[in-house]
Design brief:
95 residues; mainly alpha; 0% strand
Length: 95
């Protein structure tokens, strides 16, 4: 009967490869977690930006501005006799 002996140096090499494989897998999982978290932050920022754009549009609304002008500042539409029409400026022709 022929016995096959495993060289002693193979056991430490297998242990090192096993540890390296586990370490590499943990790094991949950590990187995937960071990517997912970053994607969630991007999505939250995009939603927040859309909400802020809607809020800005509401604040710039002509109806809101008209109500502010009337109620807060006491302004109203100008009367016909208060409107002044200025003549257009004549621009000199370029030579």
């Amino acid at each position: 009967m022929l016995k096959k002996w495993v060289p002693v140096w193979i056991i430490p090499v297998l242990i090192v490869f096993s540890i390296g494989t586990v370490w590499l897998r943990l790094k991949i999982i950590g990187t995937a977690y960071l990517i997912n978290e970053t994607n969630r932050q991007i999505e939250r920022s995009r939603v927040e930006q859309e909400l802020l754009q809607v809020k800005l549009a509401a604040l710039r609304s002509p109806r809101r501005l008209e109500l502010l002008a009337k109620n807060r500042f006491g302004l109203g539409l100008p009367k016909v006799d208060r409107v002044i029409h200025l003549p257009k400026e004549q621009t000199p022709e370029a030579p």
